[in-house]
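Lab meeting, item 3. Inverse folding demo.
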């Protein structure tokens, strides 16, 4: 009899029952919406009251209508164009950073030759490259992708070099004592230990890629999210400018979340402090 009761309590009905702990865990994921919703309500109220003129800052409800209108029109094409530019530039910059950052991090001799130049170029703002790239490459896609690659290179390069140099010396010494070759030492010890820094650099580089694509499209483009910003400014439509800004924020968040989930799956072995509730 007892076994029947136990069996019935563990059946499908028990599996479908949602525990309070699981419900709270799902609710916690929505806490990030509290601040945006609050700000939208405040802005809507301020504009409707008349404290801010609607021609300066349209109410969020009108921005939402403009968003829906553009979503049925050219918005997706602009998003796709910017996304392809970011993907190409970020891939080029991150790949070059992985190669050069690994060489500099693993060799003091290579560092002496390359790092001073990279540190000097890192201080040059991204917009300062635009006139030179326009002279060298014109206004086609190559100039835009090159600017994005430059912007995403340095965060990745710095994080990778720092990650390699922060590997615990004792781990390297233990590998040497066990007779690891240089290749095996890099593959078994240095690469896993430097992975957290690599993903940090990738996420920072991706953020810079979105910044640079806007800079490139503001100056010379007929499509893209940056072009929407320029079009809104030239036609005196703040709603269009705000739609472009919101779209950039959403796309940046989506791509960063994808990269963050990849980081979690690749670093399941890490037992780090995740903050207090």
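The presenter then showed the designed sequence:
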């Amino acid at each position: 009899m007892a076994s029947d009761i136990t069996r019935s309590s563990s059946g499908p009905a028990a599996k479908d029952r949602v525990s309070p702990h699981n419900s709270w865990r799902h609710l916690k994921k929505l806490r990030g919406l509290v601040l945006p919703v609050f700000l939208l309500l405040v802005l809507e109220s301020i504009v409707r009251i008349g404290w801010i003129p609607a021609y300066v800052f349209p109410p969020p409800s009108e921005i939402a209508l403009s968003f829906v209108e553009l979503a049925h029109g050219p918005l997706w094409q602009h998003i796709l164009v910017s996304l392809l530019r970011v993907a190409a530039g970020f891939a080029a910059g991150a790949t070059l950073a992985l190669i050069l950052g690994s060489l500099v991090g693993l060799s003091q001799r290579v560092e002496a030759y390359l790092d001073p130049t990279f540190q000097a170029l890192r201080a040059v703002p991204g917009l300062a490259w635009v006139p030179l790239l326009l002279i060298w490459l014109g206004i086609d896609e190559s100039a835009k992708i090159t600017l994005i690659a430059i912007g995403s290179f340095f965060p990745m390069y710095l994080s990778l070099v720092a990650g390699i140099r922060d590997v615990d010396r004792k781990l390297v010494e233990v590998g040497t004592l066990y007779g690891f070759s240089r290749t095996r030492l890099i593959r078994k010890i240095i690469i896993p230990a430097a992975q957290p820094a690599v993903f940090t650099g990738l996420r920072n580089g991706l953020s810079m890629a979105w910044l640079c694509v806007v800079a490139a499209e503001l100056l010379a483009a007929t499509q893209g999210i940056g072009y929407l910003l320029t079009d809104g400014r030239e036609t005196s439509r703040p709603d269009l400018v705000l739609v472009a800004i919101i779209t950039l924020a959403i796309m940046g968040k989506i791509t960063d979340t994808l990269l963050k989930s990849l980081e979690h799956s690749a670093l399941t072995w890490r037992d780090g402090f995740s903050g207090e509730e």
